[in-house]
Amino acid sequence: MQKPSLELKGSSFTLSVLHINHFDLEKVAAELDSKLAIAPQFFIGAPLVVNLSSIIDPDYNLAALKDLLISRQLVIVGITGAITEVATQAKDLGLAQIKSGKQAKAQPQMPKTTKIVKQNVRSGQQIYAKNSDLIVVGTVGNGAELIADGSIHVYGSLRGKAMAGAAGDKHAVIIAKTIDAELVSIAGQYWLTENIQANSTTKSGCIRLDGESLTIEALPL
Question: Whose CA, among 11, 44, 125, 136, lies 20 to 30 Å from 100?
Fold first, then answer.
């Protein structure tokens, strides 16, 4: 039997959500550019849903926001949480309205695996563990990047960037024998070097989310 030329099937994909919390597009642009400069791989080329639940102005210029995001090479697949007037604009702009809530939360999570790297990760290298935890047995140099949808473990010095929970897992952690990182991030919340130094009295540690803020705990590694 000949296979049909198209098929419509249900599926589940991980989408990052960009929350717009201010009506001033100049302010949004400035903060967005700052985040992109630090970790562009969080956004560029990845499908995004824009959460507009904080926008209550019926005259909000959604078209201008769309143009702003596109100009930063962001891929906008739809919106969520918009009031009726803004949702109407979205329809006219060809943006889908993504439903969230109990139904979305009930979707099954993909099983996690573990990616193991037994070597030093040098400057300019990027390692991504999709739907996985990431274990690195070695040193992560300045300018190197670790990205994992799950947790990140470094059995050596972490001097570059480590971004765990990249798909939104707030239970992910970053554990390292020595933490001298340029940036650490869990589910989009991040610390730079100065934040790490201000909040840490230890070299070995576990970085995790406590509510919406990062925290670090000493570990006897």
Answer: 44
SS3 163: strand
* DSSP conformation letters of 77-107: EEEES--HHHHHHHHHTT-EE---SHHHHTS
158 or 47: whose pLDDT is higher?
158
pLDDT given for residue 102 in this prediction: 44
What's the sign of the alpha-carbon dihedral 80, 81, 82, 87? positive
DSSP state of 150: S
**What one-letter code names the amino acid at 162?**
A
Compute CA 134 distance to the chain's CA centroid, rounded to the nearest angstrom: 16
Question: Cβ distance 87 to 97 under 8 Å?
Answer: yes
| Structure-token pair, residue 166 | 């990249």
Cβ-based burial of 212 (10 A; exposed 0-12, middle 13-18, buried ≥19): exposed
Rounded to 5 degrees, what angle do the CA atoms 52, 211, 20 make?
A: 15
Q: Distance between CA atoms of 186 and 125, rounded to whole angstroms?
A: 20
Running DSSP on this structure, what letter comes out for residue 42? Answer: G
Q: Which of 148, 177, 158, 163 is nearest to 120 (CA)?
A: 158
Using an 8 Å Cβ cutoff, are 182 and 157 in contact? no
Helix/strand number for the chain, H first, E second: 5, 15
Whether 117 shows a pLDDT value over 90: the answer reads yes
